[in-house]
Amino acid sequence: MNKLFQQYSKPNVNPQFSNIKRMMNTIKTATNPKQALMQNPQMQQVMQLVQQSGGDPKTAFYKLAEQKGVDPQSVLDALK
């Protein structure tokens, strides 16, 4: 890679973040976002986690990050 562009490239990111970003883009562009969510089998688990956290996705995210010992801000930064 050209040294000039190295400073602008993002560090290697967990491949799961790429999958999450792809899923987010699919949902954003879907004509029926709720249906798009339900077509993904992994979303069943996510929906259960959100329900267990009182229906608040943000709370569910931070709770899971704490359980896994992950810095939530680093995850959010990687998804930008």
In words, what does this structure look like?
This protein is mostly helical. The chain has one domain (14-79). Helices cover 70% and strands 0% of the residues. It has helices spanning 3-6, 15-29, 33-38, 42-52, 57-68, 72-79. Helix 4 (42-52) crosses helix 5 (57-68). The two termini are 22 Å apart. The model has no long low-confidence stretch (mean pLDDT 75).
How would you summarize what this structure contains?
By secondary structure, the chain is an all-alpha fold. The chain is 70% helix and 0% strand.
How many whole angstroms does the radius of gyration measure? Answer: 15 Å
Order of helices and strands: HHHHHH
How many domains, in number, for the residues?
A: 1
- Per DSSP E runs of 2 or more residues, the count of β-strands stands at 0
Given as residue ranges, the uncertain stretches (5+ residues, pLDDT < 50) are none
Describe the largest sheet. none
Structural class: mainly alpha
Fill in the keyword field for this structure.
80 residues; mainly alpha
SSE diagram, text form:
Elements: H1 3-6, H2 15-29, H3 33-38, H4 42-52, H5 57-68, H6 72-79
